[in-house]
Recover the amino acids of this structure.
């Protein structure tokens, strides 16, 4: 009987610990472009997917040759969601981004799921103002 009570307390404590970690970690991973932050956000159920927007007036922070011999470029971009909240994202691309363009990036926290170039008209007006592109 004592064993069952101890096991029940252990399970309850574990559930509380996991719940607290799910709530706290989004704040710990925000604006961190590390592989660990991306992996944590990808599996954390408390982190919601959202679309953010960025301008492409930046140069890659580094480039390298990938495992298949392809060129890879790493970008760090200031992105904005529909509410105008800024977040830095880091992601890889096999292309040099054309300057003065807009990107729509689907994210789950720091994890970039997809990205695509979009026309100026597709970017919410409040976001365009934050991006300061004409």
């Amino acid at each position: 009987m004592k064993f069952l009570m101890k096991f029940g307390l252990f399970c309850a404590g574990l559930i509380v610990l996991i719940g607290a970690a799910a709530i706290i970690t989004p704040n710990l991973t925000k604006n961190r472009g590390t592989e660990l932050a991306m992996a944590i956000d990808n599996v954390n159920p408390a982190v919601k997917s959202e679309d953010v927007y960025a301008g492409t007036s930046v140069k890659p922070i580094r480039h390298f040759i990938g495992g298949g011999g392809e060129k890879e470029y790493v970008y760090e971009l200031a992105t904005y969601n529909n509410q105008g909240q800024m977040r830095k994202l880091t992601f890889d691309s096999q292309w040099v981004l054309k300057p003065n363009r807009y990107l729509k990036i689907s994210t789950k926290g720091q994890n970039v799921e997809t990205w695509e170039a979009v026309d100026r008209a597709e970017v919410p007006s409040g976001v365009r103002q934050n991006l300061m592109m004409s």
